[in-house]
Amino acid sequence: METSEGAFSWKPENCDTPKVAECFTKVAETKFAIKVEEFFNLFLSDNAVNFVKSFHRRCGDKEFKCSSWCPHDKFGHVRDVSFQHPIKIYFGAKFDSCQEAQKFGIYRNSHLVIETSQGISDVPYGDYFRVEVQARPELP
User: Fold this and answer.
1) Structure pTM?
2) Total number of domains in the chain
3) Mean of the pLDDT values across residues 47-74?
4) What's phi and psi for 75, nearest 5 deg?
5) At what angle do helices 36-43 and 49-58 cross, to 10 degrees?
6) 15 in a structural domain
7) 112 in Cβ contact with 137 (< 8 Å)
8) Rounded distance between C-alpha atoms, residue 52 and residue 44, angstroms
């Protein structure tokens, strides 16, 4: 990951990319004319936190917090993100607390797998579901 000097070390694991679970449904696909490593550096690395914070601010979120990526025994690297998201209904709280666990793994041929799991806690029945996302940027 990033060293204390801020240099990034891109180290793919010597194993195949895990299969996509059958419960996932593809909802979007797009092309970026950049390498996977550059995509990670621009949008997900510790150095990209200001970009991520700006994205959340444009969504109306506040109190954005993001930990640094840390190595994980079972899945590459992990970090935690939290923020307050505006609720667009006329009763109850004006903002909801969102917690997001993010993970990424780099596999053979620089295949990047990003997973997020997001939960909310301040709306009725918010604890009954989570939003699970898996992104797999591939070489152009």
Assistant:
1) 0.82
2) 1
3) 94
4) -150, 80
5) 60
6) no
7) yes
8) 8
Phi, psi of 29 (to 5 degrees): -150, 135
Please give the distance of CA 69 from its chain centroid, rounded to a whole number. 11
**Conformation bin of residue 129: beta by default, left when phi > 0, alpha when psi is -120 to 50:** beta
| 5 domain residue, yes or no | no
The helix (H) or strand (E) run that includes residue 43 is helix 36-43
Range of the domain at 63: 36-81+99-118+128-135
As a whole number of angstroms, the distance between CA 42 and CA 52 comes to 10
Q: Name the token pair of 40.
A: 């990670």
Contact at 8 Å (CB) between 126 and 97? no
Residue 58 structure tokens: 């444009």
**pLDDT over threshold 80, residue 2:** no
Name the DSSP letter for residue 31: -
Residue in the structure block whose two tokens are 């180290």: 11
**How many whole angstroms separate alpha carbon 57 and alpha carbon 101?**
19
